[in-house]
Every structure is written in C-alpha cells, then in structure tokens.
Amino acid sequence: MKIIKALLVAVMLLSGGLAWAGNVNINTADAATLAEGLNGVGIKKAQAIVDYRKQHGPFKSIQDLAKVKGINDKLIEKNKESITLGQ
Fold first, then answer.
1. d(C-alpha 40, C-alpha 42), whole Å
2. Which residues pair with 84 in a beta bridge?
3. In a domain, 28, yes or no
4. Based on the structure, what is the number of domains in the chain?
C-alpha cells in the first residue's frame, strides 16, 4: 500500500511539472528562465533573446524569434509547444 501511494504521489508531481514546463513567455522571461525552459537555448542565446526584445520591443509572433542571432526555424519548431507570447 505504501508503494502504491508513493507511486501515485510521484506521478502527480511529475505530471504537474510537465504541464508547467510548457509555458515560457518570450516577452517577459529573463535569460535564465529562457535557457532553462527552451530546448537548445543556452544562456548566451537566451541573453540574445532578451537583448533583442529590449532593443526592438515585444515579439509579435513566435516566428519573430528567428530575427535573433543564433535562433533558427528548426529551434523554434522544436520549442513551439513551450513558447507563449503572453496576453
């Protein structure tokens, strides 16, 4: 019985974590959050996203990320389920 309870708790914790992991707001996230939440984006690319956003304003679409040096369509496609633009 203890094992079943432990497994249920583990499944609940993991599924909750996976649901949360799918939302990285590219218009408000700092570099550390971008690097942690997007596959293939390290701190250098994440900082480039933040710098671009500061210089050009908020992203209007997810595809606008391709304007950032080091970000290509393949990387955007890989992360499209994790990216949000906010409200």
1. 6
2. 25
3. yes
4. 1
Residue 12 lies in a domain: no
What's the pLDDT tens digit per position in 20-48?
446 999 999 999 999 999 999 999 999 99
Q: Dihedral angle at the C-alpha atoms of 32, 34, 37, 41, nearest 10 degrees?
A: -100
- Give dist(CA 72, CA 34) in Å, integer: 15
Residue 61 lies inside a defined structural domain of this protein: yes
Cα atoms found within 13 Å of the Cα of residue 87, Cβ hemisphere only:
0
Asked if the structure places residue 42 within a domain, the reply is: yes
Residue 69's pLDDT band, with cuts at 50, 70 and 90, is very high
What residue numbers bound the domain in which 30 lies?
A: 24-84
DSSP per-residue letters across the chain: -HHHHHHHHHHHHHHHHHHHTT-EETTT--HHHHHHHSTT--HHHHHHHHHHHHHH-S-SSGGGGGGSTT--HHHHHHHTTTEE---
